[in-house]
Amino acid sequence: MATIRDLKKTINYELSGIIEECYLWQLTNGDKADKAEKIIDAAIQSFDELIIKVNEKNIENKKSHFQSVTKALHKSTDSLMKKLVKL
After folding, report:
1. What is the DSSP letter of 55?
2. How confident is the model at residue 33 (pLDDT cuts 50, 70, 90)?
3. How does the average pLDDT of the chain come out, rounded?
């Protein structure tokens, strides 16, 4: 099992990559910057929610809990990337 620190780094890396892509899209499409802002806000909200889940205490089955956090991360990044591609 990966460490909690590695999971936090993965969450940060994947969601910050999406935010960076949004910033690049904004630079090339300045007139439509509002659309990318919504995706950035969603990525930040997703980051906050996932970190809260990772930091939860008093978990009975840690392995399944962290697997569910990882699945939620992949689901979130897939959804955000689909929105970004539609821009």
Report:
1. T
2. confident
3. 91
